[in-house]
DNA sequence: CATGATATCCCATACTGTCCCATCACGGCG
DNA sequence: CGCCGTGATGGGACAGTATGGGATATCATG
């Protein structure tokens, strides 16, 4: 399950969006014909993955913590309480609930970004901004890596 | 039995609320056509689940604590004694008893939050506050969640 | 036994989520 | 270069849900 690349799709008046077919193909393996979508904890966007993935996490919570564990309760509330199981319609679209649209600031367009075992759903503008930041970081990291390869012994002070 | 997502519904003057159909669908498996609702021990909200689940909990209490443990007695009494079996009416609504409404501070609107094997019923404002706190904690606990995963490669996507 | 408050039941109505079908845009293939 | 298949969009039709009221049972009381 490796989501990659990014696609920009329209969100119609009813709140429907087509999930990129490439992504849908990856999710086909899932028993549930749809995606589990939730609000990202760190970023102003939505995250989506197979329902099994989320199930796995919540199961872990039940196993690792006791039935009456406070921390488990809190994590479950944050994770499951914010996760919507959205089924695909015949055309491969999902209906994004108002709360999710509001959280991500999405109105009529959404950007789907594959990031490994899950994908993000952004409001175009926000995505542009975030992307710029990441590019800057990547650039810095690349330079650093380059420096490391060329002169391993000197890498410590090689901030270019 | 896996409750997820959150829905906001109206509570009419009579104290009736529609239980989200998705939740109702999950409870359909239960022989009792309704839900078991009780006051949460830790949070200022109500908790609800199938009658069967409550029975399971009380059994668990017997296992986790000694048979004559005072705490167990207290918990069991509070849980079993304070639980209301609320049946669905023809429209899928339940009538929340005054005591429960007062406890949760619910007046004309209620938020249903799925948290796995049960769901919570909150007063909107209170839920919003609690939710923000939990999101912050969840962000902090991200590493912990990652550590819980059996398959480490699954946690390597973009940062949650 | 009468009475008011409370719980049920039933019906009417506005919405919203789904489903189905038509149109378009884009590439690949005769 | 036009035909065709797949994916993305839009809209309309309908059924399932969420809500509100009013009429009817129930029950604890005075």
Task: Please give a quick description of this structure.
By secondary structure, chain A is an alpha+beta fold. In chain A, 41% of the residues lie in helices and 22% in strands. The first copy, chain A, folds into 2 domains: 117 residues, Transcriptional regulator MraZ domain (Chemotaxis protein chec), CATH 3.40.1550; 37 residues.
Structure write-up:
The structure is a homodimer. By secondary structure, chain A is of the alpha+beta class. Chain A has 2 domains: about 5-120, Chemotaxis protein chec (3-Layer(aba) Sandwich), CATH 3.40.1550.20; about 125-160. Helix content of chain A is about 40%, strand content about 20%. The first copy, chain A, contains 5 helices and 8 strands. Chain A has helices at about 20-25, 50-65, 70-80, 100-105, 125-150, and strands at about 5-10, 15-20, 35-40, 45-50, 85, 95, 110-115, 120. In chain A, helix 2 packs antiparallel against helix 3 (about 70-80). Chain A binds a DNA duplex (30 and 30 nucleotides) through loops.
